[in-house]
């Protein structure tokens, strides 16, 4: 947790709360040597599928001081996105993080504003804002900054909150007292592993992305392989299965950010999705993350939805 006696960290926490963040923590900017072997093994196993960009800038991915010269601290932020309203039960499924406006834009806006206000208190500081948009190991930094632990589904879990939140980082030249990692609270639970229909969780904390429904419906550019046809469980963009079954997510509460609220499409049923045109798609999802997949891929994914 943040040390109240440090004035800059106290200001940082106050600003984080002001801008709606769930939590903020600090870690020392350094090379993540302890992550190097596991990252290289994950890549060697081809668990990244066709995401070739994961092989790029390996040293920068491990060492933020190469990404941001002069960096002394990694500031980690969490932002709740759990929706107030979920989809029609008969509709093809969209991951909850994609219900509203693209989180890259929303969170970056908030962090740029936050850092501008922080500079009013501490003077000129140099750094960069990252929201899942550069070779930054966000989950590992969040662990080091005391915001949670890595669950068996490889996602960051926070006691009392679960995992339905975005992670963002600011790598900067501020030298701040660091926070301490918390203990793992997954215990013997294997709910996420047992629930994954494609067996993508190959061991505790390790996911073979090439088998993950989120990868298949978003990252994979080629058609979804036929042998996954009976395992998609209705998902057409992303997947929340391993989060929905996690006991810690019983603590999830609706987010208050208006830009994360879903549009009219949240009430669509299966027939509405079946009749979706490109014009309707562009009108409904103009600012949403689902546009990353594109209309054609969404329509292709709906082809895997089996009638009840």
Q: What descriptive keywords fit this protein?
A:
alpha+beta, four-stranded antiparallel beta sheet, two-stranded parallel sheet, 13% strand
Give the SSE layout.
Layout: H1 7-18, E1 23-28, H2 33-44, H3 58-62, H4 64-67, E2 73-80, E3 93-94, H5 103-122, E4 127-130, H6 138-144, E5 149-150, E6 156-157, E7 165-172, H7 191-195, E8 201-203, E9 206-207, H8 213-219, E10 235-237, H9 241-244, H10 270-274, H11 278-284, H12 295-302
Parallel strand pairs: 3-10
Antiparallel strand pairs: 1-2, 2-7, 4-7, 5-6, 8-9
Helix pairs in contact: 1-5
Tell me the helix content: 25-40%
Order of helical and strand elements = HEHHHEEHEHEEEHEEHEHHHH
Number of strands: 10
The shape is globular
Structure, explained:
- This protein is α+β, with helices and mostly antiparallel strands and about 300 residues long.
- The radius of gyration is 20 Å and the shape is globular.
- It has one domain.
- It has a four-stranded antiparallel β-sheet with strand order 1-2-7-4, with helices on both faces. The protein has a two-stranded parallel ribbon with strand order 3-10.
Summarize the structure in short.
With 308 residues, the chain is α+β, with helices and mostly antiparallel strands.
């Amino acid at each position: 947790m943040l040390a109240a006696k440090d004035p800059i960290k106290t200001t940082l926490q106050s600003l984080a709360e002001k801008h709606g963040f769930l939590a903020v923590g600090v870690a020392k900017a350094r090379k993540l040597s302890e992550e190097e072997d596991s990252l290289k093994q994950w890549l060697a196993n081809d668990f990244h599928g066709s995401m070739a960009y994961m092989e790029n800038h390996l040293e920068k991915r491990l060492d933020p001081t190469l990404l941001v010269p002069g960096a002394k601290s990694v500031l980690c932020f969490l932002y709740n996105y759990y929706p107030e309203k979920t989809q029609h039960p008969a509709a093809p499924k969209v991951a909850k993080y994609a219900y509203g406006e693209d989180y890259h834009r929303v969170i970056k806006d908030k962090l740029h504003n936050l850092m501008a206000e922080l500079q009013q208190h501490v003077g000129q500081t140099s750094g960069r804002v990252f929201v899942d948009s550069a070779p930054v190991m966000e989950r590992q930094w969040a662990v080091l900054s005391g915001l949670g632990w890595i669950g068996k589904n490889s996602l960051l879990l926070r006691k009392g909150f679960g995992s339905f939140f975005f992670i963002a980082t600011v790598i900067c030249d501020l030298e701040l007292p660091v926070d301490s990692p918390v203990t793992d609270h997954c215990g013997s639970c294997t709910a996420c592993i047992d629930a994954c229909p494609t067996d993508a969780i190959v061991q505790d904390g390790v996911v073979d992305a090439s088998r993950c429904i989120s990868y298949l419906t978003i990252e994979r550019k080629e058609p979804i392989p036929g042998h996954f046809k009976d395992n998609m469980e209705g998902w057409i963009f992303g997947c929340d299965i391993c989060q929905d079954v996690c006991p810690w997510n019983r603590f999830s509460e609706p987010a208050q950010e208006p830009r994360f609220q879903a549009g009219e499409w949240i009430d669509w049923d299966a027939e509405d999705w079946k009749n979706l045109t490109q014009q309707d798609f562009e009108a409904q999802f103009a600012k949403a993350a689902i546009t990353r997949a594109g209309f054609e891929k969404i329509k292709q994914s709906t082809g895997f939805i089996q009638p009840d």
